[in-house]
Amino acid sequence: MADIKELNERIQRESAFIDLLLMEVGKVIIGQKYMVERLLIGLLSNGHVLLEGVPGLAKTLAIKTLSSAIQAKFHRIQFTPDLLPADVVGTMVFNQKSGDFSVRKGPIFANFILADEINRAPAKVQSALLEAMQERQITIGDSTFKLDDPFLVLATQNPIEQEGTYPLPEAQVDRFMLKIKIDYPNREEERLIMRQNITSTQVQVKSVIAPTEIIKARSTVQEVYMDEKIERYILDIVFATRKPKDFKLDKLTNMISYGASPRASISLALAAKAFAFIKRRGYVIPEDIRATCHDVLRHRIAVTYEAEAENITSENIVDDILNTIEVP
Known about the structure:
With 328 residues, the chain is an alpha/beta fold. The protein folds into 2 domains: 2-198, P-loop containing nucleotide triphosphate hydrolases (Rossmann fold); 224-324, Magnesium chelatase subunit I, C-Terminal domain (Helicase, Ruva Protein, domain 3), CATH 1.10.8. Helix content is 47%, strand content 15%. It has 14 helices and 11 strands. The strands form 4 sheets. It has a 5-stranded parallel beta sheet with strand order 2-5-8-1-9. Strands 3-4 form a two-stranded antiparallel sheet. Strands 6-7 form a two-stranded antiparallel sheet. Strand 6 (137-140) and strand 7 form a beta hairpin. Helix 3 (33-44) packs across helix 11 (262-278), helix 11 packs across helix 12 and helix 12 packs antiparallel against helix 14 (314-324). The protein is globular, with a radius of gyration of 21 Å. The two termini are 19 Å apart.
């Protein structure tokens, strides 16, 4: 208990920058606290984020502002059907003067990558990006290059426009730690957004921390205490997506075509630790699991045609699981 108390006090000190960061991002991003917190979870857990929302909800602005506040390098890649893998990772260029080939690095070489409308690019380009996300390295010709650290990919997809898109295969979607669905701001938030965007004064974002501090914070996040009961709770949730009958969820048997992968258990544990860190706690509580569960599982549960016919989504399934499984 003394160790946990000491850890808790240390994490309260070391997570002080979170408030500074949220305050700085909040100067530009009004509302959308949920989205900004999830971006921080991805960053602190060394994971990537898939964001789904209609255009105009400050998805690009959020990651750009976050990278400015962290003194990090930001690149935006607009995915289109004619994009080639070389446009993302880079290519070999022939130098006529020297008669040699030299490497020209692509926009993937940055700390924060915004993959805008990822589902507009063909499979080859999606694979090139996902390989970079998984391996944290790029091979161009004979040379292999390590990507910068921290490295966060925020991919966006537009849920309302399906024409000319290439849906991400389930195996590739699984590489994203979190899938966030964002909605419109409320009336008061939109009034403030409107007011901020019709004035001549531009809000300047200051750098409040360095990328090295994020790397240091990641190792602290891994030290956040997680009790065995919490670990069992995570496993119960994930296993309930695979074998619902074992958890008295018989009604879900015909609704799930396949459940969450082992990546889900890892991601849920890491996300809960990062969420506890953001809340300046040195230990994980069941509420941390419940707060991050939908973001970790919504893209990892495949629903059957029967479920689709009844308008049952993966989120409804997660709700049922959370309402049934006993909280430790």
